[in-house]
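tool_call: predict_structure(chain=1)
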Amino acid sequence: GGYVEALKKGFVQAAVKATAQARDLAIAQRKENFVGVNQFPNFNEVIDRQLCACIFEPEDKTVEGAEIETLKTYRGPAAFEAMRLKTDVYSAKNGRPVVYMFPMGNLAMRKARAQFACNFFACAGFDVMVSRLWTKVFRLVWTIRLRLSCCVVQMMNMQDLLRKHTKS
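tool_result:
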């Protein structure tokens, strides 16, 4: 049948779509990295102009009655960039959301989890505060109460959690 027949039957389009879906999964699982998008964020970066969220959606340029469906544009980082835009739009009206993190347990695991969570939230445009900045719990609770848009994340590995709750 050849390439044109494969296009007409949608084989090429299906293969490209499957590849894009597999790549999206690899990006979401951080097996494929885009610096500043899904890994190693610039904590001070903000979108400083109005953008339409539509720029992150693939355009279908197939005209009605076409013999061949067109291939859709694809950019791996688009989903992360759309999420970041939503946070920046929200922040312009409500202030930047803050995540307060409380890493606990084994030091090596605590640092790894804290780094992962910090990158995750920072890539989405959140300010991230790690508990080592506060010396007293009361001071931390007071700081959180002053913020209207915040999230609190406590990180602990399962072994430490079980050890803590099964001691007799």
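agent: Strands lie at 98-103, 127-130, 150-155. Proceeding to next step.
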